[in-house]
C-alpha cells in the first residue's frame, strides 16, 4: 500500500463533516471538541509535511487554552519553538476544509507547491492539555502523522510552552537545553536559583522577611495542566520559592471562575484562592502560556498586575542591568491595542515601544527586530527574546573574570541568568513567574511597590455575540474597524464623549464572539463607554440574542 493509499484509508476513520468549514484563528483551530477529530488527523498530516520541508522536528499541541472545557484546539510549533509560520496557515485551512474525496488532492498540492521531498524523515512531538477530549484528539494527530510515515514522540500531558521548549531543544541539538521534562525543570530552576543568588544581603533579608510575612506565592493553576507541572517542578526550586497551589485539578472545572483570563477580564480574584492582604498571587491559564499577578490591599481592594505591568517590570529591569553592565543593547517592548494607555505612556518615556496585531505569532515576530524584545499582551501572554548577538555579548561579559567593578559583574551575571530563566520559545506562565519573582527579589520590590510604578486607566473588556463575526474587519493593528460601514464612525463619536478615552472592536480569533475594549478616566465612564460601543456593535454588526445590558 502506498503512503497516499494509507492516508486515504485512515482519513475515513476521521471523517470530515460535509460542508463544515473552520478558520485558522489567532492561535490555530479552536472550537467545540466534537468538531475537531478530522482537523487533528489532518494537522498530523500537515506537521509531517512541515517537518519534511524544514528537515526539523515540529510540534503539535492539543489544547484550547483559556476556552471552556468543552472546546479544544490545536497549535502547531515551528522548529525554533515559535508558532507555525503564517504562510503555512493557508495550507492548514486547505487541508482542514477539503472534503473527504479531495483530501489527497489538497495534500499533493501542498507537496508540489513547497517542493517537498517525501523521502525525507519526519519527526513530530505531540503534547496535550487536561481536557477530557484531549486524549482522543491527540490520538487522531498521531494517526495522521503515522499515516504519512512520520515518527511520533508523545509527551502526554504537558503545558503548551513545555512542548515548544522540547521542539526548540531538539532542533538546536541540545544547545537550548535537554528535550525532556527534567531538562525543562532543571534549566529554568537552576537559572532562577542563580538569579536570586545575586540578591544583595540587605535586600535578601527584606525579601525573606516578605516571604515569611506573606508566606508564599499563591498560584491559581486554573484547574489545568500548569498546576500539575508546577507541582512536578517544585522540588527543583530548592526552597527558593514557596508555592501554595490552588485550583490544582483535584476538584473544580478547567478555567471555570479561575485562571488568567477570568481574572483579567472580570478584574477580580479567582474562586478557590484564599488571599490575605498584601500577598502576591498569580493565575495561569488552561495551558499555562499566560500569567497575571494580583493582590488585595488593606481596604480589601483588588489590584491586577497584568501583562503590561509584567512587561514594565521586566523591561525596566533589563534596561537598568544593561546600563550597569555598560552594554549598548536596545531593549524594546512590543504591545497590542489591549495595552493600557498608562502603561504605554510610562514605557515610552523609558524604552522603545512597538505595536502590533493581537496574537503571539505577531508579537514574537515584532520582538525579533530588537537586540532584546520584551513582548507581552495585556492578557499575560509574553516572553523576552534575546538576539544571538545580545546573548553572545552578555555571555562574554558574564564570564569575564577580569572585571573588577562588582556592580558591573553582577549586572552581567543577572542578565545571563535572565536569558536562561525565560522560555524564549513562547510565552510561558511558569518561566515568566520565575522571572518576575527573581526580579522582585533582586530589586527588593514588594508587590505594592511594583504596582505603584504607574496607575492603570480604568478599562473594561466585553464580549458580544453576532451572527457572523467575519462581518467585522479591522486595520491599524486592529485598532480601527473597516467594515461594517458606520461602526468606526459610531465608536469615534462615543469616544469623544469621555475624557482620556479609547475604545476598539475586533473579532476574536479563538472564540465565536466580538471583543470590545474601552478605557477612560473613571470606571463609571469606562463602563458607560463599553456599554455604548457594545450596543453599536449589536446594532451595526448583526448582534444575536438580547441587546447587551449594562454590567451593573
Ligand atoms: C491566544 C493567542 C493570544 C491571544 C489570545 C486571545 O491565546 O495566543 O495571542 O491574545 O488567544 O485571542 P483572541 O482575542 O483573538 O480571542 P491562548 O492563551 O488562548 O492560546
Structure notes:
This protein is of the alpha/beta class. The chain folds into four domains: 3-157, Alpha-D-Glucose-1,6-Bisphosphate, subunit A, domain 3 (Alpha-D-Glucose-1,6-Bisphosphate, Chain A, domain 3, 3-Layer(aba) Sandwich), CATH 3.40.120.10; 183-305, Alpha-D-Glucose-1,6-Bisphosphate, Chain A, domain 3, CATH 3.40.120; 307-451, Alpha-D-Glucose-1,6-Bisphosphate, Chain A, domain 3, CATH 3.40.120; 459-540, Alpha-D-phosphohexomutase, C-terminal domain (TATA-Binding Protein), CATH 3.30.310.50. 42% of the residues lie in helices and 17% in strands. The protein has 19 helices and 19 strands. The strands form five sheets. Strands 1-3-2-4-5 form a five-stranded mixed β-sheet, with helices on both faces. The chain has a five-stranded mixed β-sheet with strand order 7-6-8-9-10, sandwiched between helices. A four-stranded mixed β-sheet has the order 12-11-13-14, with helices on both faces. Strand 6 (217-220), helix 9 and strand 7 (243-246) form a beta-alpha-beta unit. Helix 2 (37-54) packs across helix 3 (87-97), helix 7 (181-197) packs antiparallel against helix 15 and helix 18 runs antiparallel to helix 19 (523-540). The longest helix is centred in the middle third of the chain and has 19 residues, at 307-325. The protein starts with a helix and ends in a 12-residue tail after the last helix. Bound molecules: 1,6-di-O-phosphono-alpha-D-glucopyranose (G16). Its cofactor is Mg(2+). It catalyses: N-acetyl-alpha-D-glucosamine 1-phosphate = N-acetyl-D-glucosamine 6-phosphate. The active site is at residue 65. GO terms for molecular function: magnesium ion binding; phosphoacetylglucosamine mutase activity. Residues 486-534 form the Alpha-D-phosphohexomutase C-terminal domain.
Amino acid at each position: 500500500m502506498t503512503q497516499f493509499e494509507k492516508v486515504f484509508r485512515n482519513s475515513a476513520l476521521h471523517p470530515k463533516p460535509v460542508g463544515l468549514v473552520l478558520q485558522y484563528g489567532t492561535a490555530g483551530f479552536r472550537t467545540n471538541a466534537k468538531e475537531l477529530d478530522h482537523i487533528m488527523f489532518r494537522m498530523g498530516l500537515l506537521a509531517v509535511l512541515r517537518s519534511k520541508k524544514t528537515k526539523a522536528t515540529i510540534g503539535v499541541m492539543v489544547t484550547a487554552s483559556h476556552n471552556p472545557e468543552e472546546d479544544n484546539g490545536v497549535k502547531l510549533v515551528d522548529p525554533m519553538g515559535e508558532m507555525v509560520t503564517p504562510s503555512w496557515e493557508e495550507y492548514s485551512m486547505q487541508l482542514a476544509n477539503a472534503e473527504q474525496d479531495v483530501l489527497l488532492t489538497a495534500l499533493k498540492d501542498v507537496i508540489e507547491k513547497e517542493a517537498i521531498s517525501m523521502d525525507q524523515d519526519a519527526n513530530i512531538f505531540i503534547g496535550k492539555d487536561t481536557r477530557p477530549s484531549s486524549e482522543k484528539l491527540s490520538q487522531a494527530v498521531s494517526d495522521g502523522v503515522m499515516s504519512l510515515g512520520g515518527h511520533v514522540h508523545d509527551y502526554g500531558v504537558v503545558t503548551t510552552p513545555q512542548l515548544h521548549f522540547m521542539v526548540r531543544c531538539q532542533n538546536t541539538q541540545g544547545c537550548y537545553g535537554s528535550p525532556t521534562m527534567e531538562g525543562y525543570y532543571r534549566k529554568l530552576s537552576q537559572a532562577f536559583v542563580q538569579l536570586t543568588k545575586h540578591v544583595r544581603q540587605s535586600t535578601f533579608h527584606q525579601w525573606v522577611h516578605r516571604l515569611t510575612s506573606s508566606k508564599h506565592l499563591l498560584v491559581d493553576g486554573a484547574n489545568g495542566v500548569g498546576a500539575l507541572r508546577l507541582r512536578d517542578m517544585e522540588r527543583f526550586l530548592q526552597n527558593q520559592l514557596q508555592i501554595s497551589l490552588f485550583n490544582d485539578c483535584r476538584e473544580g472545572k478547567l478555567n471555570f471562575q479561575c485562571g488568567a483570563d477570568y481574572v483579567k477580564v472580570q478584574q477580580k480574584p479567582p474562586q478557590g484562592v484564599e488571599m490575605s492582604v498584601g500577598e502576591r498571587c498569580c493565575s495561569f491559564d488552561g495551558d499555562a502560556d499566560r500569567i497575571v499577578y494580583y493582590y488585595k490591599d488593606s481596604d480589601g481592594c483588588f489590584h491586577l498586575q497584568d501583562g503590561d505591568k509584567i512587561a514594565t517590570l521586566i523591561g525596566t529591569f533589563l534596561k537598568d542591568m544593561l546600563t550597569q553592565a555598560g552594554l549598548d543593547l536596545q531593549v524594546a517592548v512590543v504591545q497590542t491595542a489591549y495595552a493600557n494607555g498608562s502603561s504605554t505612556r510610562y514605557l515610552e518615556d523609558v524604552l522603545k515601544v512597538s505595536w502590533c496585531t493581537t496574537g503571539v505569532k505577531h508579537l514574537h515576530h515584532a520582538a525579533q527586530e530588537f537586540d532584546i524584545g520584551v513582548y507581552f499582551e495585556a492578557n499575560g501572554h509574553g516572553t523576552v527574546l534575546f538576539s544571538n548577538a545580545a546573548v553572545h555579548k552578555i555571555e562574554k561579559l558574564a564570564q569575564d573574570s577580569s572585571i573588577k567593578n562588582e556592580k558591573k559583574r553582577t549586572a552581567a551575571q543577572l542578565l545571563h541568568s535572565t536569558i536562561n530563566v525565560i522560555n524564549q520559545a513562547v510565552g510561558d506562565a511558569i518561566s515568566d513567574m520565575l522571572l518576575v519573582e527573581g526580579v522582585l527579589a533582586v530589586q527588593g520590590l514588594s508587590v505594592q511597590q511594583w504596582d505603584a510604578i504607574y496607575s492603570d486607566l480604568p478599562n473594561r473588556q466585553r464580549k458580544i455575540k453576532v451572527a457572523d463575526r467575519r462581518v467585522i474587519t479591522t486595520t491599524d493593528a486592529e485598532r480601527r474597524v473597516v467594515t461594517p460601514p458606520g461602526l468606526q464612525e459610531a465608536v469615534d463619536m462615543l469616544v469623544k464623549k469621555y475624557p482620556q478615552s479609547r475604545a476598539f472592536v475586533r473579532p476574536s480569533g479563538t472564540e465565536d464572539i466580538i471583543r470590545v475594549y474601552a478605557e477612560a478616566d473613571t470606571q463609571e465612564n469606562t463602563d458607560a463607554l463599553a456599554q455604548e460601543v457594545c450596543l453599536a456593535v449589536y446594532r451595526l454588526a448583526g448582534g444575536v440574542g438580547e441587546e447587551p445590558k449594562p454590567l451593573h
